[in-house]
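Hey, quick one: can you model this chain's 3D structure?
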Amino acid sequence: METGPRTYLDHNATAPVRPEVAEAVARALLDLPGNASSIHREGRAARAAVETARARIAALAGTAPGSVVFTSGGTEAANAALSGGLRRRDGPAPTRLIVGATEHPCVLAGHRFAPEATDLIPVDRGGVIDLAWLEARLGALAGEGVLLSVQAANNETGVVQPLDAVVALARRHGGALVHSDAVQAAGRLRLEAAASGLDALSLSAHKFAGPKGVGALVLAPGLTLDPVFHRGGGQEARLRGGTENVAGLVGAGVAAEIAGRAQAEEARRLAGLRDALEAGIRARAPDAVVFGEGAERLPNTACFAVPGLEAATALIALDLDGVAVSSGSACASGKVGRSTVLAAMGVPAALAAGALRVSLGWNSRPSDVDRFLAVFDRLISSLYKRRERAA
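Sure thing. Here's the predicted structure for all 391 residues.
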């Protein structure tokens, strides 16, 4: 049973807020009482804080501050980009949507395109999209307005997608628009939204240790969008009306600045912890399967299964021993069900049912990996004993 402090290894669901971020939010709540749309001194101070946050988010995304539209999170940002209203200012809105088969539900179910106007890009067994299929499909749709949406990195497996190649194909075949859900990549990979040629990119602050309920949609120059809210005060260049969450944005900006500054060093540190974790898992369970292992992955993410070990049983046992991990996406009402990501990768249902995701972050230490492995060792010992009795 649980003793002592808990070990939190579910950063892909949400990262604990950094102390500096919490302090910045608290100060903003007390020191910035004004509405950022007001012209008096208090309003101007709030506006300055919002614009500082915008510049910091833009720097993390590798773009200009004027490209950033604040939202309530990654889901709203992705839904807005995929509403059918994203387009170049001198062109019509796209009529067809192509999305990766392993996308987050906010993309797979959050768009407004008809089923007959939507295609799924298949992935290989490593979870990487099939570029040859995509090129053929874009060729077949020549002359039609196409919007592509491909994750920067998968929330369950950590698999990184070849966005540069996706953008190149889009430009080669009719200039399709390209959106990327970069929620899991922000702060973990170097993002260069402007240099990469992406047309739109979604972010969420709570994934890089900022407050929950703050996100952003990054739009390339020359792109426009139908307003998220059709009635309101005209904030965010009239794209997203409503009084800004000044304190939340301040916290998001501080988190973005820290994450950007520490990104390269953190990536190396977390990759070392992840590799030690996976080596420890294999030492205890030689038949463990690490999903996406052959592909480029986020440095902080390990998604694996051991044949015969059910995810629900493992999650409960780990939780009772003070270790918090996940069975995959945290956006399914707390239920443990079959992963659409693993299904798209061709993982057998029985093996996918045991998938566990360990995701590390800024406050993860070697002792956290050791504690996980100690509990995991007991789970595996029990599983192997049951196998021996059944043999």
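One thing worth noting: The chain is about 40% helix and 15% strand.
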